Amino acid sequence: MKLVKFNPLVHDINLVAGLIYETDSETFEFYFNNRQNAVKIIGKLVEAGKNNLGHENIYVVTNTENKIFGVLVISFGSGKSIFGNFSLYKKVFNLRIAFKLVLFDMVDSIFCASIDNCDLYLASVAVNYDCRGKGVGKFILKKSLDIAKKNKCKRAVLDVDIYNEAALGLYQKFGFKIYDKKILPWIGGKKGIYNMEFCLY
User: Which site among 44, 61, 115, 157 is 20 to 30 Å from 177 CA-CA?
Assistant: First the structure.
């Protein structure tokens, strides 16, 4: 098992997009109606690059046959501005989808952790369903911290849905601590996120 940079010429972009979708399926479906549409849009964002889900920000856990066990999407610091992303969205999608993506980014900015320039942000950590319970999630987190240390980051930061008890438990066992909680009324109930950090220095 190894963590390597995603290569769209080698790795299955649809599988990667599907794993990213699984990290926030409810929100993706709210904006893009169903899994099929959402995965297609995510795949185009991965392929286009120069955005928060662009291929340059993605690592995959794989083996010598390039089977994908899991996905890690990262960014350093605060990343692109919402309106900076809009110009890219207009080039890749029609105006309606571009506006939906900006709205998605705006809602994300309310819930997601505040990121400093010296932070590594783990935007998505996903394990292929067939590979769960085999240590892939821990492997991704360990390699994430290696990336953070190599780049002299002070913290590794991530967000976890308040209802995702399995992920929360994994992160806490690994040493991530909750430092903030954001809960707001949402369609059909409430939406909430724990902001978590692993301090390196």
Answer: 61
pLDDT mean over 28-37: 93
Q: In angstroms, rounded to a whole number, what is the distance separating the alpha carbons of residues 37 and 153? A: 36
So what's the pLDDT on residue 92? 94
Tell me which H or E stretch contains 192. strand 189-199
pTM: 0.92
Whole-angstrom distance, CA of residue 191 vs CA of residue 22: 16
Phi and psi for 157 in degrees, rounded to 5? -125, 145
Instruction: Provide the domain count of the chain.
Output: 1
Domain of 54, CATH number, reads: 3.40.630.30
- Could you tell me which residues come within 8 angstroms of residue 123 by beta carbon, excluding any fewer than 6 positions away? 52, 53, 57, 73, 74, 75, 158
CB 144 within 8 A of CB 120: yes
| Cα 146 to Cα 150: distance, rounded to the nearest angstrom | 6
